[in-house]
Amino acid sequence: MYFTARQLEMLAHLHAALQEHGKAPTLAEIAAHFRFSKVTALQHLRALEKKGALTRPRYQHRSIELHWQPSPERQRDRRLPIAGRLGPGGRLDYVARPADFDPQELIPTERHGHVIKVVGSHLAADGFPDGALLIIEPRSKPHPGELVLATLNDGTTVIRRLERGAIDDALVPLSGAAPDRSNLVPARRAKLLGVVKAQVVRFGE
Questions:
Q1: What topology is assigned to 114-200 in CATH?
Q2: Would you give the distance in Å from CA 65 to the centre of its chain?
């Protein structure tokens, strides 16, 4: 069972209150502690109850029963809420019930999945700045439209987009001039090292 970071904070708060006072905080006290409304506090409690972390006997004051215990070995949940959407025109909308994003989904399950770090600005025009981490899935048969890491005949390694051709699949540059025969590389003439599944870029310190 996983918990979001906020849910873990709430469970830790409930555990501390029970240890210190011998009774659970009220809904108003929980809301005040976390600086959100009683409605939001109730939604969190219901979600935790649904996950089996606690029970709330009906019609009983301060009656939360906690079934969760903190553990030094417990790893923090890595999931993050997809809390909003940034749309056209710069409109930012936050959602009432965010979905969970698990960074683990970006990591290939294959045994030899790995990360390549970009060093220098030579790929910046393609959208891969200096310091970017590229998550590579070692798949030799990419699908059309996927980004591939490939080594060309001259020994250089590039990131290109695979496009399906009538005769032969081709590796197309991501930036610069429109693709033509002069800058297309037949896929069979390159060593395909893997598919670029995602990149991670850290801004600032």
A1: Umud Fragment, subunit A (2.10.109)
A2: 32
